[in-house]
Design brief:
alpha/beta; two-stranded antiparallel ribbon; 8 strands; globular
């Protein structure tokens, strides 16, 4: 089953959003699902080792296990640049508005690179997120020790709202050491 809808975002632009897969399955939000391209653009992507149908293949590959809420947020922002709207608050609100417009109450989230960070910001702002998958993050030689200090402090600020679940963040450093931050969200 597949559904496509145009959703109006906070800046007034419209974004094509799809919901694919069986309604009985858990939902995963993929803001990284690029539209397929053809001709010269496809050939150019292939030269760099990129599948021109990657977004479609991603959605199809996950649709057996999940209901996939998919859209190309990055591509949309390139086509509709709004620097004042590229804040954690605006992006999180856009993602929550998209979920609401598609009739989605709770969902998991997968993001890569800056959209992984957008997912972390989303997790700090909503109870609707069931899980967070962050690809391509953190960066090589990133501020890992600082992240281990800052993340619990940000999360503690977030804990003044009821939220009974455990958020576990795994940080893999370039030296293959693994640090885990376990943060328990408690209901008040």
């Amino acid at each position: 089953m597949s559904q496509i809808k145009l959703v109006t975002l906070s800046d007034g632009s419209t974004l094509e959003v799809g919901l694919a897969g069986k309604p009985s399955r858990p939902i995963i939000m993929l803001p990284i699902a690029k539209k397929s391209v053809t001709d010269q653009e496809a050939e150019s992507l292939k030269m760099w080792g990129v599948d021109p149908d990657l977004g479609q293949h991603f959605v199809e590959g996950l649709s057996d296990l999940f209901q996939v809420l998919h859209f190309d947020y990055e591509g949309h922002r390139f086509q509709h640049p709004q620097p004042d709207h590229l804040t954690a608050e605006y992006i999180a609100n856009d993602f929550l508005h998209i979920a609401d417009e598609m009739g989605v109450d709770t969902f998991s989230y997968y993001g890569y690179s800056w959209l992984a960070l957008a997912g972390l910001q989303l997790a700090l702002r909503t109870n609707q997120l069931e899980s967070l998958i962050m690809g391509g993050f953190p960066p090589y030689e990133g501020p890992y020790q600082e992240m281990l200090t800052v993340t619990p402090k940000l999360t503690n600020k977030r804990c003044n709202r009821p939220r009974p679940r455990l958020l576990r963040i795994h940080i893999r450093t370039p030296s293959a050491q693994k640090n885990t931050i376990g943060i328990r969200f408690k209901s008040h």
